[in-house]
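Target chain:
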Amino acid sequence: MNTPRFLFALCLACLVLPVLAETAHTPKPGSSERKEICDGLRSFIISEYAEKKLPKPIVLKVEYLKVSGDYCWIEALPMLEDGSDAVPQFLPDIGYSHCLKRINVGWHVILDLSRTDVPDGDEVRKIRRYFPGDFPVSILPKFWQDLFLQYK
């Protein structure tokens, strides 16, 4: 066995495999990862947006979800557990869009881009500054990726 080549190959694998393991994915409905992400977002929505006491727990109708490493982007519509609308009687009528990060135990909202309108160029540039430097832009929906490219 050629030890230097083996060590080189081993070092290369140690560098490449973590990158390959970080490919973006969408957790399947019912998976523990998806449940943890939704739990983090659900508690944030209730604490930040509930305009009055909710009569039932909320569930999230996930419209977009991508995860890479310890970051995820989720767009979801909160609904009451029985399937009835939580919006606008209990929660504002906005597009719920959030960046979450896995911190210690659980997922936590680190950036809330929920809104009713499309941001202008100055706002997009400001929003970009709020993203962590290691945030994988590839998990953003095409809408946000296009805005970030348009307003560098």
In short: Helices lie at 3-21, 32-49, 121-130, 142-150.
